[in-house]
C-alpha cells in the first residue's frame, strides 16, 4: 500500500494505491448487506469470501495504520457492490470506528466525498481501480464523508473499517 | 361487551369477541386455533376466519405528529426530520418506549437506528440545548426507542 497526497488541508484523508489484487469483482457472489452498518439500505450488497478479505487485509500497510492509530483494536474488511442510486448522506461513522480505508476494486464513477460540519463539499477521493483513501475519523475540524452512485453502473469497493 | 378485566376467561368467548364483538354471545364457533385468534385468518385450522388485529403501537397518533428536525444516523442512512406522537410533548420528553417515524403521518417507522443523533438548539424541537447533541439514540425494528442516548457537548 502506497500512501500518497493528502486530499485537502482540512481533511485527514490521504490517497492510497495498492497492487492489483486480481479480484474479478463483477463475478463474485453478493448478498444484500446485513443491516449491521447500513440499516435497511437495499442498494449495497456484500461479498463474504473470507479468503478474499484476508487477501485484501494482507495488502494493507499495517505498520502505517499502527503509526496513525496506535490504539486500534480490529480491522473489518468488507467487499461491496453498490447499485446505481446507492447513497449515504454526509456522516461521521460510529464513534467506535477510528478510521477507514476505501479501495476501488474497479474503475468506478463515484468516490467518497468529504464535507465540512455544515455538509459543504470539500473534496473527493480517487475513483480508479486500485486507488483509494485512508481517512482518520472523529478529528477536528469535524469532517463528514458521503457517497452516492450517480452512475448507471455498479460500484465495487472494499472498505477496511479500523476500530 | 369487551373481554372482562378479571375472572376466568373463556377461549370460545374470546373468539366470539374477536369475530363478532360479542363476548357473551351464543354463536357457534367450531374449532378455534389460538394462533388464528392472535394472527387473524384461519390458516391454522379454525372453522371461522378471524379479522386481522391492528398491530399499530398503542401510542399511535390520535392528535398528530411532532417533528424532530435534523435527525441523523451515524452511517449516513438517514438525514432529515424524524417524527413522533405529539402527545409526547416537546422533544426532550422522548424516552425509551416512544416511537420514531420517518413520515409525518407516523406510518413508516424509523427502524433499526444503531447510533442516531440530533444537534441541539434553543428550540423545543431539539432534545438537547444549544452546544450539545443528543447521541447514541437507538431504535428497534418497529421504530421504538430502545436507547434514548445522552446529551453531549458538540461540536
Quick recap of the structure?
The complex is a heterodimer of chains A (163) and B (155). Chain A is mainly β and 163 residues long.
Task: Provide key terms for this protein.
A: 163 residues; mainly beta; Jelly Rolls; four-stranded antiparallel beta sheet; 12 strands; 40% strand; globular; B: 155 residues; 6 strands
Topology:
The complex is a heterodimer of chains A (163) and B (155).
Chain A: E1 2-8, E2 11-17, E3 31-32, E4 44-47, H1 50-59, H2 62-68, E5 75-82, E6 87-91, E7 99-104, E8 113-115, E9 121-124, E10 131-136, E11 144-148, E12 155-162
Antiparallel strand pairs in A: 1-2, 2-10, 3-4, 4-5, 5-12, 6-11, 7-10, 7-12, 8-9, 8-11
Chain B: H1 11-20, H2 34-39, E1 65-73, E2 79-85, E3 116-119, E4 132-139, E5 145-147, E6 150-153
Antiparallel strand pairs in B: 1-2, 1-3, 3-4, 4-5, 4-6
Helix percentage of chain B: 10-25%
What's the order of the H and E elements of chain A? EEEEHHEEEEEEEE
Largest sheet of chain B: 6 strands, antiparallel
Q: CATH homologous superfamily of chain A, by name?
A: q2cbj1_9rhob like domain
Structure write-up:
The complex is a heterodimer of chains A (163) and B (155). Chain A is mainly β and 163 residues long. Chain A has one domain (2-20, 42-162): q2cbj1_9rhob like domain (Jelly Rolls), CATH 2.60.120.620. Chain A has 2 helices and 12 strands. Chain A has helices at residues 50-59, 62-68, and strands at residues 2-8, 11-17, 31-32, 44-47, 75-82, 87-91, 99-104, 113-115, 121-124, 131-136, 144-148, 155-162. Chain A has an 8-stranded antiparallel β-sheet, with helices on one face. Chain A is globular and about 40 Å long. The model of chain A has no long low-confidence stretch (mean pLDDT 97). With 155 residues, chain B is α+β, with helices and mostly antiparallel strands. Chain B folds into 2 domains: 1-53, no CATH class; 65-153, no CATH class. Helices cover 10% and strands 23% of the residues of chain B. Chain B has helices spanning 11-20, 34-39; strands at 65-73, 79-85, 116-119, 132-139, 145-147, 150-153. In chain B, strands 1, 2, 3, 4, 5 and 6 form a 6-stranded antiparallel β-sheet that branches. Chain B is elongated and about 65 Å long. The N and C termini of chain B lie far apart (57 Å). In chain B, 30% of the residues are buried. Classes of the chains: A mainly beta (163), B alpha+beta (155). At the A-B interface, strand 6 of A face loops of B.
Amino acid at each position: 500500500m502506497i500512501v500518497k497526497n493528502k486530499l485537502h488541508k482540512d481533511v485527514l484523508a490521504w490517497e492510497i494505491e495498492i497492487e492489483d489484487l486480481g479480484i474479478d469483482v463483477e463475478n463474485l457472489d453478493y448478498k444484500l448487506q446485513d443491516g449491521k452498518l447500513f440499516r435497511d439500505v437495499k442498494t449495497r450488497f456484500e461479498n463474504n469470501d473470507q479468503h478474499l478479505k484476508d487477501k485484501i487485509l494482507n495488502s494493507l500497510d499495517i505498520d502505517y495504520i499502527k503509526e496513525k492509530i496506535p490504539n486500534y483494536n480490529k480491522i473489518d474488511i468488507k467487499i461491496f457492490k453498490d447499485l446505481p442510486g446507492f447513497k449515504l448522506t454526509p456522516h461521521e461513522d460510529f464513534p467506535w470506528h477510528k478510521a477507514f480505508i476505501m479501495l476501488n476494486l474497479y474503475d468506478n464513477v463515484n468516490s467518497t466525498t468529504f464535507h465540512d460540519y455544515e455538509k459543504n463539499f470539500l473534496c473527493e477521493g480517487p475513483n480508479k481501480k486500485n486507488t483509494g483513501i485512508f481517512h482518520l475519523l472523529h478529528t477536528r475540524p469535524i469532517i463528514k464523508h458521503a457517497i452516492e452512485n450517480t452512475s448507471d453502473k455498479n460500484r465495487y469497493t472494499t472498505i477496511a473499517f479500523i476500530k | 361487551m369487551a373481554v372482562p378485566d378479571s375472572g376466568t376467561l373463556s377461549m370460545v368467548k374470546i373468539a366470539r369477541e374477536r369475530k363478532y364483538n360479542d363476548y357473551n354471545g351464543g354463536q357457534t364457533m367450531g374449532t378455534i386455533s389460538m394462533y388464528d385468534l392472535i394472527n387473524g385468518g384461519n390458516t391454522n385450522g379454525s372453522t371461522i376466519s378471524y379479522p386481522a388485529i391492528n398491530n399499530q403501537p398503542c401510542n399511535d397518533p390520535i392528535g398528530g405528529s411532532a417533528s424532530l428536525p435534523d435527525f441523523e444516523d451515524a452511517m449516513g442512512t438517514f438525514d432529515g426530520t424524524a417524527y413522533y406522537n405529539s402527545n409526547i410533548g416537546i422533544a426532550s420528553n422522548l424516552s425509551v418506549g416512544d416511537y420514531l417515524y420517518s413520515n409525518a403521518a407516523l406510518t413508516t417507522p424509523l427502524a433499526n437506528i444503531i447510533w442516531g443523533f440530533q444537534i441541539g438548539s434553543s428550540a423545543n424541537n431539539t432534545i438537547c440545548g444549544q452546544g450539545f447533541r443528543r447521541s447514541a439514540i437507538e431504535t428497534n425494528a418497529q421504530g421504538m426507542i430502545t436507547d434514548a442516548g445522552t446529551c453531549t457537548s458538540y461540536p
